[in-house]
Design goal:
Number of helices of chain A: 4
Oligomer: heterodimer
Helix content of chain B: 55-70%
Number of domains of chain B: 2
Number of strands of chain A: 13
Largest sheet of chain A: 13 strands, antiparallel
Order of helices and strands of chain B: HHEEHEEHEEHEEHEHEEHEHHHHEHEHH
Helix content of chain A: 10-25%
Order of helices and strands of chain A: HHEEEEEEHEEEEEEEH
Distance between the termini of chain B: 27 Å
Shape of chain B: elongated
CATH superfamily of chain A: Lipoprotein localisation LolA/LolB/LppX
CATH architecture of chain A: Clam
Strand content of chain B: 15-25%
Chain lengths: 253, 405
């Protein structure tokens, strides 16, 4: 089950405010923090198209996503028609699913957190847990490499001993200019590569320049891939905490 | 006089010794036969539990399904194939199923469940499902209700008439969500089924999972285990990739191993028992021979052939063993038949140990012929071995010394 996991980290990284790139001698933690902050705002709104690619079939899902800080996010499915109107709400470490066709809100139980989200390579757990790259990991700068033409820091993330994380280690490549996260590799506890994440289509989205296309490839499943394209993203929009409520799940559209 | 008659009279010259020896064989046979019967009976019961309650003897599946049990590894069963399978000699029933994992949710509680779409009539023919309904009613074809295990129902605080929401992932990743009234509650003897199984009509399941006409398996039943190889062979000629055939022992390798190791344990136990019996008989034979050394020598001296004497001694041992075996068989047939019709129900803590392993808490007995004839064969071999002693001794008997005795 663990092998299925692909991080949704970038999705949340997207919703970060940009900070000015400062001094010359940055520590690994500062680099990760800057990249993290770049993609996360106080709040954000995005319109995303997700493609799920399997050896024998493909599927496209479109959704709108609102986020505030690391605590709240809400996803509203817009396509395909059969799924339209489904809402996922994340508050802290909990997750609910509003299903309009049966008129019910269902809390996703812990046993389901490692299940695939909407049939993709992401798990439900990815949607709620991935805010911990800063606090749960020790960061170490291990070199420079070029990714997609960008000169990048290569940073190793090793989980802290008491951290509740599923990865054994993560490599992340962050561009020296602009602090763009361009690639992540996720390894399990035995040191085997599980997922590779590539970020591309770097665009100015209004107040900052960030990658807008994510490709996630599980290492042990040939022909499996999940991609996400951000068609629109706005940062630091005003959203009330009440927006992320069970009541609002039924009203949002 | 005929040698069997002489042998028969000889063994009654020391009644007590003959009876004691025969009794040791009698108890050995009874013990071994009852124990084998209980073992074989329990194995059949365990196999029945998985085969007749769930997996069936054979299943037709999409070839990747067993390794990767997702709703995507399903197939469409054509009418022609389904008809051809039903016509295989020995096949007694077939039942299509669409099975997947889903969340079952009542108003406030949610739990993971195995949701199985069934053809209610076909399923009843295969697993006798209707028999286990304890509240409510069974499904009828096209039913919109569901059946659920009693433990799952009480966990979710729902009962007949309440509404249950099922939520999961359908064919090719679509969301599967549906609302169903609870039509009936079942209780199987196996608690793990009661904790997680939900049945609904096949059409409803196909709609829920957005998988029209698709099934995960076609369960094929034959009359009993012995009909399986022939039916399997016939199925193999009909089924080609991307479909495959699996038999219950391929689907339940743990059970096959469990039975094999338990059977070996029983064999060791019986071997020890029979070694003790063999030495008991040997003891008797040695005594008998020692007592009659002089008599045998006299017989030889007056012209009886050694070969004839050895034959008589052999017959004596055979008669004693036969006495034990026949009475033992009669006794064990009686005991086993009684327990076959009145299996021992286990209760209390011991029952929990059974059900925790997923086995019905019953000591069942078997009337399989091998349970009985195996004992006869074993005793026969023992007698052969033991009778070597007097035969060799007779052959080597030095008449002058024995006469002086």
């Amino acid at each position: 089950m663990m092998k299925r996991k692909i991080s949704i980290l970038p999705l949340f990284l997207m919703f970060l405010p940009a900070l000015e790139a400062g001094g010359q001698e940055l520590t690994a933690s500062q680099i990760v923090q800057k990249a993290y902050d770049l993609m996360r705002g106080k709040s954000s709104y995005a319109e995303v198209t997700m493609h799920i690619i399997r050896p024998k079939w493909e599927r496209t899902i479109s959704f709108k996503a609102w986020a505030k800080g690391t605590r709240y996010s809400l996803i509203y499915i817009t396509a395909p028609p059969r799924e339209r109107g489904q809402v996922f709400l994340k508050r802290d470490k909990e997750m609910w699913n509003w299903v309009p066709s049966i008129g019910r809100t269902i809390k996703i139980p812990p046993s389901m957190m490692m299940q695939s989200w909407m049939g993709s390579d992401m798990t439900n757990d990815d949607l709620v847990k991935e805010s911990s790259v800063i606090e749960d990991y020790n960061h170490k700068l291990i070199g420079s490499e070029t990714v997609a033409g960008y000169d990048c820091y290569k940073i190793e993330l090793i989980p802290k001993e008491d951290a509740a994380v599923v990865w054994g280690k993560i490599y992340t490549w962050i561009s020296k200019k602009g602090f763009l996260t361009l690639k992540n590799e996720y390894y399990d506890e035995d040191g085997y590569l599980v997922n590779t994440e590539t970020l591309s289509k770097i665009r100015n989205v209004g107040d900052r320049t960030i990658p807008t296309f994510f490709e996630m490839v599980p290492a042990d499943k040939p022909g499996h891939k999940t991609t996400m394209e951000f068609n629109l993203i706005r940062f630091d929009i005003p959203i009330d905490d009440n927006f992320f409520s069970l009541q609002n799940m039924r009203k949002v559209h | 006089m005929k040698s069997p008659v002489i042998a028969w009279r000889n063994i009654w010259r020391n009644k007590r010794r003959t009876l004691i020896t025969a009794a040791s064989v009698f108890f050995g046979v009874i013990f071994a036969a009852v124990m084998s019967s209980m073992q074989e009976g329990s194995y059949s019961k365990m196999i029945d539990n998985v085969v007749k309650f769930y997996s069936g003897y054979l299943q037709v599946q999409q070839e990747d399904y067993w390794e990767n049990k997702t709703i995507n590894n399903t197939f469409v069963l054509s009418d022609s194939l389904s008809g051809a399978i039903a016509r295989i000699p020995g096949v007694t029933a077939t039942a299509p199923r669409l099975e997947s994992f889903a969340l079952a949710s009542s108003d406030e509680l949610t739990k993971g469940a195995v949701v199985i779409g069934i053809d209610p009539e076909a399923e009843h023919r295969v697993t006798n499902l209707e028999r286990w309904i304890i509240r409510g009613r069974y499904l009828h074809p096209g039913d919109s209700g569901i059946l659920m295990g009693d433990e799952l129902a009480s966990y979710l605080h729902v009962d007949v008439g309440d509404t249950l929401v099922l939520l999961g992932m359908g064919y090719h990743g679509v969301s599967a969500a549906g609302k169903y009234p609870v039509a009936g509650i079942f209780r199987y003897p196996m608690p793990q089924f009661n904790r997680q199984f939900i049945y609904l009509d096949l059409k409803q399941a196909q709609e829920l999972y957005w998988a029209p006409h698709r099934i995960t398996s076609l369960v094929v039943m034959v009359r009993d285990h012995y009909q399986m190889p022939a039916a399997r062979q016939a199925l193999d000629t009909l089924i080609h990739p991307p479909l495959r055939v699996m038999s219950w022992d391929e689907m339940q390798p743990e059970l096959v191993q469990l039975i094999a190791s338990d059977r070996l344990g029983g064999k060791i136990f019986k071997a020890i028992l029979y070694v003790i019996i063999a030495f008991g008989i040997l003891g008797t034979v040695i005594m008998m021979f020692a007592e009659r050394r002089r008599e045998l020598a006299v017989m030889i001296a007056i012209g009886t052939q050694k070969r004839l004497l050895a034959w008589i001694l052999f017959l004596e041992i055979v008669f004693i063993a036969l006495l034990g075996v026949i009475t033992g068989l009669a006794g064990s047939v009686a005991v086993n038949t009684w327990f076959y019709h009145h299996p021992i129900r286990v209760a209390g803590e011991a029952a929990k140990a059974f059900t925790d392993m997923g086995i019905e808490p019953v000591y069942a007995f078997s009337l399989m012929p091998s349970v009985f004839y195996n004992q006869v064969i074993t005793v026969f071999i023992l007698v052969m071995l033991v009778s070597l002693y007097p035969m060799i001794k007779t052959a080597c008997l030095k008449v002058p010394q024995a006469l002086r005795g």
